[in-house]
Design brief:
Elements (H helix, E strand, L loop, with lengths): L1 E2 L3 H10 L15 E5 L4 E3 L7 E7 L2 E6 L5 E7 L3 E3 L1 H6 L6 E4 L3 E7 H7 L4 H27 L2 H12 L11 E3 L3 H8 L3 H13 L3 E4 L2 E4 L2 H7 L9
Antiparallel strand pairs: 1-2, 2-9, 3-8, 4-7, 4-9, 5-6, 5-8, 10-12, 11-12
Helix pairs in contact: 5-8
InterPro entries: cNMP-bd_dom, cNMP-bd_dom_sf, Env_Response_Regulators, HTH_CRP, RmlC-like_jellyroll, WH_DNA-bd_sf
Protein name: Cyclic nucleotide-binding domain-containing protein
Keywords: Activator, DNA-binding, Transcription, Transcription regulation
Length: 234
């Protein structure tokens, strides 16, 4: 993580996503722009809550870890989205782990300034209500997806989320094989079964396994397998 000291870039994001009308004017001097690299954690489940984050560039992976250490993917997020909204409203620690899938830019607001200047600011509260209800809808859909759909469909949807970022042309459809165990946990299957699924998708010409990575060969075919809808993204 690094802080970006670029007032023009911050203003660009504020205008592009129409953020200023959401915030109280008193909050504007306390906005901080952060950058995260691919694979870097924004927050970890159980960490103390201290910032509300607005995602303005890149893609995030949201997942939850059980006491036994198993992880379950909940969703992927693209701009404009929020991290820390539920924690802000409830006053709790972070309930999920959030990881950068690509290079990510986040506008951060420390909770002390939110409490001081925006605890009763109606536009922000309406915005957070919309975000939170959307998250509950996506979470319900993704949990049903993990229970009701075969692993092939879940993995296709996962690949579409983790290997492609419409805002970053550098993400060209590759998944490191070092991430397959995590991928199996995140979509709710075993590593052994996931390897069988990859073999099947390879025979169908949808992916190709190389030394060190899985390459998507037919993005449209994966999209068809996932019924042209990615349940892990809103």
């Amino acid at each position: 993580m690094r802080e970006i000291h670029d007032t023009e870039l911050l203003q660009h994001y504020m205008e592009t996503f129409e953020i200023k009308p959401i915030l109280n004017d008193d909050l504007l001097p306390y906005l901080t722009l952060f950058s995260y690299d691919h694979g870097e954690l924004i927050c970890t489940q159980g960490d103390p809550y201290n910032h509300l984050y607005l995602l303005v560039k890149g893609k995030l992976k949201i997942f939850n870890t059980s006491p036994e250490g198993r992880t379950l993917i909940l969703s992927f997020k693209t701009p404009l989205d929020v991290v820390g909204d539920i924690e802000y409203v409830q006053g709790t620690d972070f309930i999920n782990t959030v990881e950068a899938v690509s290079e990510v830019h986040m506008i951060a607001i420390h909770h002390r300034w939110l409490k001081k200047f925006a605890s009763d600011h109606t536009p922000l509260l309406k915005f957070l209500l919309n975000v939170i209800t959307q998250k509950f809808y996506v979470k319900s859909s993704s949990l049903s997806f993990n229970l009701l759909y075969p692993v092939e469909v879940r993995f296709a949807s996962y690949l579409l989320s983790v290997c492609f970022d419409e805002g970053d042309a550098l993400y060209s459809g590759k998944l490191s094989t070092s991430h397959l165990i995590d991928a199996a946990n995140l979509i709710g299957t075993s590593y052994r079964h996931l390897n069988r699924v990859i073999q099947h998708l390879s025979k169908e010409g949808l992916v190709e396994r190389h030394k060190g990575f899985i390459e998507v060969k037919n993005r449209e075919g994966l999209s068809e397998l996932a019924n042209h809808r990615n349940i892990y993204e809103k």
